[in-house]
Structure formats: C-alpha cells, structure tokens
Amino acid sequence: MAETHGYDVSIEWTGNLGTGTDDYRTFSRSHEILAEGKAPIAASADPAFRGDRSRWNPEELLVATVAQCHMLWYLHLCANAGITVIDYEDDAHGVMTMDERGGGGQLTEVTLRPRVTVTDPATIDQANALHSKIHEVCFIARSVNFPIHHQPEAHTL
C-alpha cells in the first residue's frame, strides 16, 4: 500500500463588512489561511477580482508553492550530487489565462528563474542541468496540469 501524508488547513472569511454577501460589490474578499501551530496568512482575491492588493491571493500562493517545491528538491538533488549551493533566489512568474466567456480562468504556465550560487565553478553546468530533473520528483510539479519552465542561472562568488 502506498504511503500517504495529510495536510490540514482552515480558511476563515474575515470580509463581512456588515451586510454579508447581499451584493457582489459590498463584501471584502479578505480571509485568513490557518494551520495549527503556524502564523496566519492574510489572504484575499487578486485585485482584478475586487481583492486586497496588500494580501496574498490564491494565484500568488500557487506560484510560490511551485517555486518552493522546486527549490527544496533542487537543494536535495545538489546535496546528493556533491554540488555545494550557498545561495538560492528565484523570481517566479505565473500566467493566468481567462476563458473567453469571462467567467473563469486557469494558470497556464509558471516560469522559474532560479539564481544559484555554488562553491565550485566546475559544477555550474551540472547545477543548471539539475533543474530539468526536478519535474520527475517535485510533489507540486507532478500535481499541476500546466507547464513549468526553468530559466536557471548558476554562478560562483
């Protein structure tokens, strides 16, 4: 039997401005994402959908999740390959495409732009190549139905 792991989160809507959802324009999309023992995440809808720009939205969180999982697996694969990484940054970008009816949309691609610092210049090519292996093992990349592109840039100090 396959091993499983469970993940429990709670969502609490904090956007009732006094009249609930009596009108599409009169309630806030603000909410909190909660999990036992963790700080709440202040969230909302994308500003294009009447959300609060100062809070995280689901689309940003999904792009961040893709980037996080990629980074964690990348560091694992580098450690196994004997590549010493001393710094990792990524400016990830997700694209949501709205459907033609205007009622919905979906993330259609994510581009990761990891900038990695390694200690040995001889490992730069291998460090860059490892990014293409992550889609085989990353839990999130294996779970989404959109392409994840990589534009890696490894260097030494």
Automatic annotation (TrEMBL):
Entries under SUPFAM superfamilies matching the protein: OsmC-like
Name of the protein: Organic hydroperoxide reductase OsmC/OhrA
Source organism: Saccharopolyspora flava
